[in-house]
Specification:
Elements (H helix, E strand, L loop, with lengths): L2 H20 L19 E7 L3 H13 L3 E6 L2 E7 L14
Antiparallel strand pairs: 1-3, 2-3
Organism: Sorangium cellulosum (Polyangium cellulosum)
Protein name: Secreted protein
Keywords: Signal
């Protein structure tokens, strides 16, 4: 027999013997995922720029005010930032 075939068959036999010797293997239970917070809301804005100097100035100004550059194509720069959380409505007047 070919040496490689003998080695492969020997490995298979050895692997099967180890599997039989260790017994049954059980998977661990997975805990259900914890309830997640609501997905964040984003503001988006795109702006056309003409040239590298203008694009650099726009990116710097937007970055300083919390915007993140997410796309750039043919001079159009698109930004996003977290939308401000709307204030909770005031409790209604109790009426007394």
């Amino acid at each position: 027999m070919n040496k490689k075939v003998v080695l492969v068959l020997g490995g298979l036999v050895l692997g099967a013997a180890c599997a039989l010797a260790t017994g049954r293997v059980r998977a661990q239970a997975i805990a259900p995922p914890a309830p997640s917070a609501p997905a964040p809301r984003w503001e988006q804005d795109c702006e056309q720029t003409h040239g590298i100097d203008e694009a650099r100035a726009v990116a710097k100004a937007r970055g300083e005010s919390g915007w993140e550059l997410v796309a750039l194509d043919a001079g159009v720069m698109c930004f996003k930032r977290l939308a401000p959380v709307p204030p909770k409505p005031a409790d209604p007047w109790p009426g007394y």
